[in-house]
Amino acid sequence: MHTETRKSRATESLEMPEESTTTAPNQPWRLCVAPMMEWTDRHCRYFHRLLAPRARLYSEMVVAQAAIFGDRRRLLGFDTAEHPVALQLGGSDPALLAQAARIGAEFGYDEINLNCGCPSDRVQAGRFGACLMTEPMLVADCVAAMRAVVALPVTVKCRLGVDDFDDEPFFRAFVDTVASAGCKVFVVHARKAWLKGLSPKENREIPPLDYARVFALKRDRPELTVVLNGGLMDQAAIDAVLAQVDGVMLGRLAYHDPYALARIHGELFDTPVPSREAVLAALRPYIDAHLGGGGELKHIARHILGLYQGQPGARQFRRELSSARPGSGLRGWDRALAAVEHWRAAA
Questions:
Q1: Which pLDDT tens digit goes with each residue over 72-99?
Q2: What sign for the dihedral angle of Cα 5, 9, 14, 18?
Q3: Is 205 strand, coil or helix?
Q4: Is omega for the bond preceding 84 within 30 degrees of 0, making it cis?
Q5: For an engineered disulfide with 190, which of 230, 289, 331, 344 has Cβ 3.0 to 4.6 Å away?
């Protein structure tokens, strides 16, 4: 196993219960944080773990060839506090994906997830991501190859359709074909993808959401674990969705307003919500270790900018963290906390 072996002080600072790094056995996908390129790196996931001890975290998508031939410690390394954490892979070659999945298992990941939903040009050029939805037999072969070499759950993240291939028979045929290869968990972004004409950002916003189709999938295939992703921005919407499916996956909400993740976690698992200050105190030893290893504050700080969204001092908090200079150590961090304390005292 290649996870960090040092004992995490984060859980000590927040006094998390021993079982807090896993969900209830029958609800492992109840609350998930989406894999997001250039966002959900190991530092982001560590921060999210402090906010949501039982959430399931996902890595950024790692292309199979990169996992095999690239800098594995940089691409795949993570802290033990992040469990349960899934490795999302991109690719379309069953043999390469199997090799990458085996490497992920050796690193200690709890799940291998295959990306069948990303619509970016780069992903399309590599014949993976959302374009794989038009090749369900190939996806089934990829799933079967990975399942043959790892004992972990092999799951799929997909959309409702691609371009003009977006009707219900198409979607159900994709799910049924992939499920026949042993995939039991489907994370469904509840909108189609347009591979031509829309940017990845537009693909997250313009194609209309259709939760009813995801609900129908769970109703008709109760043996599958179905997780809904897309457009979930408040507790009421999440509660309504969880009445119909097994789990929710949050993306932009969790990243841009991370304290919302803490509140949602507290509601779903009936656990205390840590204060922002407790989270930052628990994060400080992690930052110290990162700086001691030659890292920069900005590598971690960029993920924390939204923690005080809507609160007094939020702008000053963001400004101080964003303006911290290389080599300044924790000075920028301390100034950011001082700015928040000043505004809280004045409020």
A1: 999 999 999 999 999 999 999 999 999 9
A2: positive
A3: coil
A4: yes
A5: 230
Q: How many CA atoms lie within 13 A of 330 on its CB side?
A: 15
Closest-CA residue to 53 (of 42, 43, 45, 61): 45
User: CA 270, CA 224: separation in Å to the nearest integer?
Assistant: 25
Tell me the whole-structure pTM to 2 decimals.
Answer: 0.91
Are 28 and 21 in contact by the 8 Å Cβ rule? The answer is no
Compute φ and ψ for 258, nearest 5 degrees.
-60, -25
CB-based burial label for 124 (10 Å; 0-12, 13-18, 19+): middle
Query: Residues 34, 229: contact at Cβ < 8 Å?
Result: yes
- Tokens (6 digits) for 346: 């004045």
How close are the terminal C-alpha atoms of the chain, in Å? 48
Q: Which of 137, 130, 154 is nearest to 225 (CA)?
A: 154
Q: Map out the domains of the chain with their CATH numbers.
A: 19-266 (3.20.20.70), 276-346 (1.20.120)
Could you give phi then psi for residue 63, rounded to 5 degrees? -65, 140
Task: Enumerate the β-bridge partners of residue 90.
Answer: 63
Active site residues: 118
DSSP label at residue 119: -
Residue 202 Cα to chain centre, angstroms = 20
Q: How confident is the model at residue 15 (pLDDT cuts 50, 70, 90)?
A: very low
Q: How far apart are CA 318 and CA 301, in angstroms?
A: 9
The answer to whether 124 touches 131, Cβ cutoff 8 Å, is yes
Per DSSP, the residues of 43-80 read HHHHHHHHH-TTPEEEPPPEEHHHHHHS-HHHHH--BG
Return d(Cα 134, Cα 116) in angstroms, integer: 10
